[in-house]
Every structure is written in C-alpha cells, then in structure tokens.
Amino acid sequence: MVPFRALVWVAALLPLLLQCSVAVTEVSCSEIVPMKLRREVISITDFGAVGDGRTLNTWPFKKAIYRIQHLRSRGGTLLYIPPGVWLTGSFSLTSHMTLYLARGAVIKATQDTWSWPLADPLPSYGRGRELPGRRYVSFIHGDGISDVIITGENGTIDGQGDVWWNMWRQRSLHFTRPNLLEFKNSRDIIISNVVFQNSPFWNIHPVYCSNVVIKYVTVLAPYDSPNTDGIDPDSSSNVCIEDAHIATGDDLVAIKSGGGYIRNVTVVNVSMNKVRKGIRIAGDVGDHPDEYFNRYAMPTVDGVTIKNVWGIDIQQPGSIEGIRSSPFTRICLSNVKLWSASMHYEPWKCMDVSGAALGVQPWPCSQLTGTFSAGFCSSAF
C-alpha cells in the first residue's frame, strides 16, 4: 500500500513570468560525482542521423546507444550531438556514457503522440501520476544505469510539449504525460550545461536514485504550461542542484518523499521573482493513487535548512504544514527575505512544526520563533 506523500516546494508560480537562480553555494556539493573524460568519442551522424529538424532520428539514437552498451569501451563513450535540430522519438541511455550537446545542437522530441511508448507506473505512485494505469515513457530516460553524464555547450533538449499541454487542457489524454528526462534506480549522474525546454510534463526527474548532480542548467516553459516542474528529486539520496535558472509553469524544485522521508535538505542562495508561494513544505497534499493507501504510514520531514533566499513580488511567503501524528522537526529558516509587491503581506502558515528562524522577513509563524533553541540553525553552516 502506498503511504502518505510529503513534498517540499521551493516556489510555485503565479501565471506570470518567474525567474529563479541559484548562485554558487558556500560549499559546493557537486563533488559527490566527479566529471569524467571519455576515451572514445562517436557522433550521432556516424549512425545516419540528419539534423534538419524534419528527419526522424529515433533509430540512429537507438543504434548509437546500443553500440555504447554492447562494445563497452574502457572509460566509457561520449556521444557527440553536433549543431543542428535532431528530431527523434523517445530513447533510453546506458551506463558509462556522456551525451554531449554542442552549441547550437537541439534534440527535439517528435509530436507523434500516437506511437509514443508506454511504461509501468512507479511503485511509489501505484498508478500514473495523472490517470490510472500506465504512463507515457519519458523522452530521454535511463533505468538501473550508472556513470552517466549529460552535458555540452548549452545545447537544448526540447520536448515540444504544446501538443501534450493541449491534450491535457482538452482532457483527451489516455495516459500520464511523459517527463522530459527521467533517471530511475540509477546512480552517479551528472546533468550540466544544457537547456531543457517545453517539457510535456516534469522536466528533470531523478527517482530512486543516488549521487545525482544537476548544475549550470536552464529549464524553461511558458508560464501557463501545466505541471512543467523544473527539477523533481523523488525518493532519492545525495542530490545536488547548483546554479540553475528555472522559469516554468509550475514548481521550480519539488522534493518528493515517495511517502517515506525527507531528511537533511539544504537550500541556499536562491532568488525569486513573481511567485505565488515562496516556500511550501506539505505533509499531506491529499494525493493518493486509490482508496487503498496506508493511512497509518506517516512520512518524516526532518532537518530542512533554507538560507539566503531573496524574493520580490511574492504573493505569500510560505507555508510549513506538518502532520499531527508526524510533526516536521528541525526546520531552519535563515536570512530569508520574501517581499510582496504591495504593502499588504500575507502571513506565513504553519502547523505541526518545530524549528528556528533567524533574520526572516516577513516574520514567520510562532512555531519557528518560540523558545526552541536556534543553535542547530546557526550552526548549520
């Protein structure tokens, strides 16, 4: 049975332009996965791909990755994507490879939704996120792989999501929309120096993963595009997100527990503009796969530190709402300034939470400003 789900949002959007940047953290966490140089380099053109924006290159991508997987060059292989528009269907990655997008390279998803492959629902969801049953497989995906790098010279991965958004608006979807990039049951992943845009659904979704570094990425989608979350670490450990610029139609970064726990999360040096809710930590969002979920399985949220966050035109600074039988603990807010566009400030909303607040404006809820010792908060950095 699937337990309650707990989520941490770092900003949810108004239907306005949002800009968010994460500056270099005081102590970088990106060293958990070192960047590697590959001894072998191959090009997608070696497999007959044509970058004219019209030719479908699904088969060349699959042939290239099949070669990497089965020849197993010592030190791994770099798959080079030269400048051009490379139209393709969904494809999977393999271990010990680098997907390298040159400047001017665009990997563009086909809009042929009828032939889009399906995948089983994630075990912690029990069903598709939007609809019962299976889900459309993510555009680029990897399952049970390790030592994978997606990088380049700020090339673009374009999901061409408008056809999917329209299906969602028209309620004509048959299954849950595909993510732009998903790693499942994988480890030692680096995603850097790439632009992700127009995802059909969530953009970057590591789930059941460990040791994942996401840095120097840009994630873009129209302000009215539905559910185009930026980066959604899900049921994963040792995830580092640095120097990201995210402007989408939904959450910027949403940390998902899988119904288990969220522990030892640090958010530092974030700027926001035109945001509905700056920070949200929610214990029960009332979202369960069916009526058979385990009502007695409570998530744990402990040790969340949010420091050096600045925002303007923030409608509501935030809400931290735990569960009565499983309160949130050791929540630290330090130097968090979230300003409204008007003189009217919406208050923080808190319940079933303990922690501390230092230098927070507007002043947060009493649960974070009472007699609880702030020592752990001031010593968190």
- Mean pLDDT, nearest integer? 89
Main sheet: strands, sense, barrel? 16 strands, mixed
Number of beta strands: 29
Choose one word for the global shape: globular
Structure annotation, total helices = 3
What structural class should be given to the helix and strand makeup?
mainly beta
Radius of gyration (CA) equals 21 Å
What low-confidence regions span 5 or more consecutive residues with pLDDT below 50? 1-5, 12-25
Content of β-strand: 35-45%
Task: State the separation between the terminal residues, measured CA to CA.
Answer: 38 Å
Residue share in helix: under 10%
Descriptive account of the structure:
With 381 residues, the chain is mainly β. The strands form 4 sheets. The chain has a 16-stranded mixed beta sheet that branches. A 7-stranded parallel beta sheet has the order 4-6-9-14-17-20-22, with helices on one face. It has 3 helices and 29 strands. The protein has helices spanning 58-71, 162-169, 375-378; strands at 7-10, 12-13, 19-22, 40-43, 52-56, 77-81, 84-88, 91-92, 97-101, 105-109, 118-119, 135-136, 140-143, 146-152, 155-158, 181-184, 187-192, 194-197, 204-207, 210-215, 218-220, 237-242, 245-247, 253-256, 261-282, 300-321, 328-338, 349-351, 353-361. 48% of the residues are buried.
What distinguishing features does this structure have?
381 residues, mainly beta, 16-stranded mixed sheet, seven-stranded parallel sheet, 3 helices, 29 strands, globular, disordered N terminus
